[in-house]
Amino acid sequence: MSSKVECPKAPPWKDQGYFPKRYVVVILLHLGFLFNYMLRVSINFSIVTMVKGTNTTNETIIDIDVCDFEDLDDSDSQDYEGDFEWSEWTQGLITGSFYWGYMWTNIPGGRLAELYGGRLILGMALASASVFSLLIPIAANTHYILLIAIRVILGLCTGMTYPAGHAIISSWAPPQDSSWLTGLAHIGAEVGTIITFPLCAVLINFWGWQSTFYVPAVLTLIWCCVWFLVVSDAPRNYRWMSEPELDYITKSLGDRKHHKSPPLPLKSILTSMPFWAIVVAGWGDSWGFFTLLTDLPLYMKKILKQDINS
């Protein structure tokens, strides 16, 4: 005869203050991932208007319509003449340098979140990324090498956001809710990807390419203030937590008041085939997705001959 552990039943919404506080945390996490993507991909679009249409480098320029495309609304199109004479190779270094930093902090970010709390690591990561994003126009006007360095640091900062977010979810989401709450948080990245390019087009039209870095950075800093004021690492430390919801989460996850992170089993991790299978699969998925995300605006301009509005 097998024993079956039953998950506790969630209390009525009225007893949880009508809107459960774990939903508040996950919605803020959703917005955090959204702003994370706004900070990291805005340059992929903005660089189209940052660079001059032709440059004075030794690079061979083929000024033909490669795919025989023309802008359908050519009469209203705006040819944005940028400030910089960067070759396509240099542009690729600038947009791709983000990932030189990003790839190194995913695993350390998770460990830091275990030791010091996901709230602190995620908040500080996005706050730091916002500050460096504000410096991008200054770096671009100084030298592209400095811009690449800023992009690498930006990658180092945002590489910690996802593992820190998982640390928050693991402390707040009961097992029976963890799947959809995790999905709700993660979909913020997709929403951020979808809205960033149209938003950048509007910002460039009104305030120039510099605004595509200033506006997301300021919005993210505002989010950071709300995050630190509202969110806690554990439900028991949440100032507006109702007793029924706290009891429900505690019974679902167990009392973690005296929980201590175990030592990192580094040898077991490095010799684990399932671990390396996940790494390789994730690497391949990210390579394809981010290659498309990074090169799409340049492809739209250079090959499809579309202006930023269309």
From TrEMBL:
Work out whether the entry's keyword set contains Membrane: yes
Sorted alphabetically, the Gene Ontology cellular component annotations on this record are: membrane
Protein's UniProt name = Major facilitator superfamily (MFS) profile domain-containing protein
Identify the keywords attached in UniProt to this record, alphabetized: Membrane, Transmembrane, Transmembrane helix
Q: Where does this protein come from, organism-wise?
A: Meganyctiphanes norvegica (Northern krill)
Which InterPro entries does the entry mention? Answer: MFS, MFS_dom, MFS_Na/Anion_cotransporter, MFS_trans_sf
State the compartments where it is located. Answer: Membrane
The protein's superkingdom reads Eukaryota
Topology term for the membrane: Multi-pass membrane protein
UniProt GO MF annotations: transmembrane transporter activity
Membrane-crossing residues? 23-43, 120-138, 144-162, 183-207, 213-231, 264-284
Q: Name its GO BP terms in alphabetical order.
A: monoatomic anion transport
Q: Kindly give the Pfam families that the UniProt entry links to this protein.
A: MFS_1 (PF07690)
Q: Which residues form the Major facilitator superfamily (MFS) profile domain?
A: 25-310
Q: Which SUPFAM superfamilies match?
A: MFS general substrate transporter (SSF103473)
- Where mainly found? membrane
